[in-house]
Each structure stands twice: as structure tokens, then as C-alpha cells.
Amino acid sequence: MTTKLVLASNNAGKLKEFGQLLAPLGFEVHAQREFNVPEAEEPHPTFVENALAKARHAARLTGLPALADDSGVCVNALGGAPGVHSARYAGEPKSDERNNRKLVDDLAAHGDKSAYYYCVLVFVRHAEDPQPLIAEGRWDGEIIAEPRGEGGFGYDPYFLLPASGKTVAELDADEKNRLSHRGQALRALVEKLK
Ligand SMILES: O=P(O)(O)OP(=O)(O)OP(=O)(O)OC[C@H]1O[C@@H](n2cnc3c(O)ncnc32)[C@H](O)[C@@H]1O
Ligand SMILES: [Mg+2]
């Protein structure tokens, strides 16, 4: 049986990756935009609370099971920033280019460039689901000052994987999905759905 679900995100990069990750698993996946679901508020200080807020919002407005992703890049020398503020690190309107420039500037005076991507996924069967399924993933790397690569989205051209010497934007889509915070979290979530 295929499960129909709504993806509670308006981020084109995430939607593309979820499409690739979920395609082989027999889900009928719809982006919330198809149902004219507006962006949810994300006022919380934790990833898990924001992901739950997004999932509930989409489930409430569509009547469908919903999957939400709250994610970001956490930089150790910056005390975990941008963290939950990753999408709007440089303010409104959201801009990957300005976010990346601010991140590089903020880190310029620091020797420690280590960082990690973090992703929490929340799946709710309906808006009042008392037992949401929750999974997380983490991916370590470091921030570099000059962008490399064309793939991925967001901070990927500046996120270096020391083991391969490549940035995430230099990986092909399959490699990113195999290694990423989002891929790890989704595989863990799917185990819980079984
Ligand atoms: O809330 P939705 O609609 O899902 O879209 P969003 O872009 O606002 O998503 P978040 O609130 O979860 O913010 C996550 C930000 O973290 C960054 N990010 C998350 N995953 C990433 C990845 O795989 N590669 C690069 N940047 C990523 C990117 O800047 C995202 O905008
Ligand atoms: Mg968001």
C-alpha cells in the first residue's frame, strides 16, 4: 500500500532531496505548496520543536500525514550558530548568498572552522498525533572561505568534508543523500515507520 503524505517544506533543495530519498520507498509525496499551505511559524529555540510545528501545521491544513524537516548548520566556534536560525542568518528576506557571506565573515577571526549539519525529521499521522515519529542526523565538516561546486543548496559550497577534500556542493546527489544529515535522519525515520 502506498502512503500519501505531505512534505511540510517550501525549500526547493530539501524537496528535491526528499523526492530522491522517498521515491524508492513507495510513498506518494506531495509538497505542501500543492495544497497552498503557507509557511509555518518557526519560533522555537530547538530544531525538534520547529519540525513538530511545521508537521502539525501541514497536517492540520491538508488532513494528510505530514513529514517536516528542521535543519541547519552549527558552527562550534560560534557557539552553535547559525543553528535553528540558519535559513535567515543574515536576516530577511532569506538569502543563501548573504547567509554564506555572513558566516564566512563571522568565522574569519576564528581558527576553529569545524561545523556540523543537523537535521530533525518529524512525521505525524494527523495534526493531533500524540506519538509523532522523530529522527535525527548529524554530518561533520568544516567551513571554508571560498565556495566550491554547483550541487546541493544553502551552505553546501562552503561546507568541506575533510575525508574527501570535497565540499558538499561537489558531491553528486546520490553521494550527498547517502552521507547527509537528512539522509541519515530519513533512514532512521523509515525504520520507525515499519
Ligand atoms: O522550513 P522549510 O520550509 O522546510 O525551509 P527552510 O529553508 O526555512 O528550512 P529550515 O527552517 O529547516 O532552515 C534550514 C536551513 O539550513 C540550511 N540547510 C539545511 N540543510 C542543508 C543542506 O543539506 N545543505 C545546505 N544547507 C542546509 C539552509 O540554509 C536551510 O535554509
Ligand atoms: Mg524554515
From TrEMBL:
Catalysed conversion reaction: dITP + H2O = dIMP + diphosphate + H(+); ITP + H2O = IMP + diphosphate + H(+); XTP + H2O = XMP + diphosphate + H(+)
Annotated binding of substrate, by residue: 9-14, 71, 153-156, 176, 181-182
Gene3D superfamilies in the record: 3.90.950.10
UniProt cofactor(s): Mg(2+)
Cofactor note: Binds 1 Mg(2+) ion per subunit.
Keywords attached to this entry: Hydrolase, Magnesium, Metal-binding, Nucleotide metabolism, Nucleotide-binding
NCBIfam families hit by this protein: RdgB/HAM1 family non-canonical purine NTP pyrophosphatase (TIGR00042)
Protein name per its UniProtKB record: dITP/XTP pyrophosphatase
